[in-house]
Design a protein that fits this description.
30% helix; 399 residues; 13 strands
Length: 399
């Protein structure tokens, strides 16, 4: 972790930050700059079109829906995906989907989790450790990415959901500066760290995966909203999931919240199967969120949890660029509203940017675990303390 951040803070304090500065410090999921080049492992399987449902996964002791061979030092986590990225034929798994806009596609991924994986880590090759190639025994690696026809996708998804203890699934929508590969890796890491029993699904919109493409991603996430809404409709119609958890990070919250609001307005009956909505570090104008989005979501009476932080440098930079607070900011301007349990994550241990704490902090992951696994509301979760203010009540992580 880099401890000295004074240049960034000084620039923000002087009010001199602009878009070129923003793209240098904003990121949703850390880019794997330490990964040596883009060389794919020899053992990585390329994408292939599947015309029939894949075989079910073998269960292991740690995660019922993972598989592992006796001579390997890693577990394989299988995830489901929907994406509106362009597809590259005959490419390696990591290059299967690009950054151009396209039509909806569906499939599954297999991702390795090393045996000595540390909770919150997204292990990747490091030049400091003289690691120049991905190794599933040591790293979280996208091994396969297979596309399939929509009907077979939902057949396979239903099998997975029906075999889980609570007929459950989560859908994760990533944020800015995230490739398809890293969206798959992050989803698998979250699945493993939460010991999630149901079907893990991620929606990967065509982010450019570049720090300099913030404004391009802003336009693309707006474009992707319609496709995400279609996917959510189909998912609730065809998946048979009885407990659905929706999770979004950063810019991904823009599409998820608006799509969900439209879905609930059109099909209010889905709220019975919508168990929890988790908004992490939302890069949304706070005033727009409070006036337009939150009322549309809370009016249906479904639980909503929002994680915010005042140490999130990415959102602080976004605030400078846009001129207004973000819904993921804490402090005096934090979103506190009836129907939303806001969690101040300022004090949790985090990385340099303090933006991906939802998946990197053991404290936050543990809190999400009890939220999903035990369905405990904020007042009952051990690591939180309630704070009552004139504007209402929120929760913060204990010291």
């Amino acid at each position: 972790m880099v401890s000295k951040i004074s240049p960034v803070r000084s620039m923000m304090k002087l009010g001199a930050i602009c878009l070129p500065a923003l793209v240098l410090i904003l990121s949703c999921t850390p880019n794997r700059s330490e990964k040596a080049g883009s060389e794919a492992m020899d053992s990585v399987q390329v994408s292939e079109e599947i015309s029939s449902p894949p075989k079910q996964d073998i269960r292991d002791k740690r995660l019922k829906k993972s598989k592992k061979k006796p001579d390997e030092n890693y577990t394989v986590v299988r995830t489901f995906f929907a994406t509106d990225r362009d597809q590259n034929s005959n490419a390696s798994a990591s290059q299967t989907f690009g950054s151009a806009r396209s039509t909806l596609k569906y499939g599954t991924c297999e991702v390795s989790i090393p045996r000595d994986h540390r909770m919150g880590e997204l292990e990747a090759p490091s030049i400091w450790k003289l690691q120049f190639k991905e190794d599933p025994d040591k790293h979280v690696v996208l091994l396969t990415a297979r596309s399939m026809r929509q009907e077979f996708f939902y057949d396979s998804l239903r099998q997975r959901i029906q075999s889980s203890s609570g007929s459950s699934a989560f859908i994760f929508v990533h944020g800015y500066n995230v490739s398809f590969e890293d969206a798959a890796r992050r989803t698998a890491q979250i699945t493993y760290d939460l010991s999630f029993d149901g079907a893990p699904v991620f929606y990967s919109w065509p982010s450019q995966g570049k720090t300099a493409a913030y404004t391009v991603d802003e336009q693309t996430i707006e474009w992707a909203q319609g496709n995400l809404l279609k996917f959510l409709k189909d998912f609730f119609d065809q998946s048979d999931a009885q407990n659905v958890y929706l999770i979004a990070h950063s810019m991904g919250n823009r599409a998820l919240t608006r799509s969900l609001a439209a879905l609930l307005a059109e099909k209010p009956e889905v709220r019975k199967r919508l168990t929890e909505v988790i908004l992490t570090a939302p890069d949304i104008d706070a005033d727009v969120f409070k006036r337009d989005i939150a009322p549309a979501l809370t009016s249906h009476g479904r639980p909503i949890t929002l994680y915010a932080s005042s140490r999130d440098l990415a959102l602080a930079a976004s605030k400078r660029v846009h001129g207004y607070p973000r819904a993921g900011d804490s402090g005096p301007e934090m979103v506190i509203m009836p129907g939303i349990e806001t969690i101040d994550a300022t004090k949790v241990e985090t990385g340099f940017l303090g933006h991906s704490y939802f998946a990197e902090s053991k404290s936050v992951l543990s809190d999400i675990y009890y939220l999903i696994k035990e369905r405990q509301r904020a007042d009952r979760r051990f690591g939180l303390r309630g704070v009552t203010t004139a504007r209402g009540r929120y929760w913060a992580f204990k010291d």
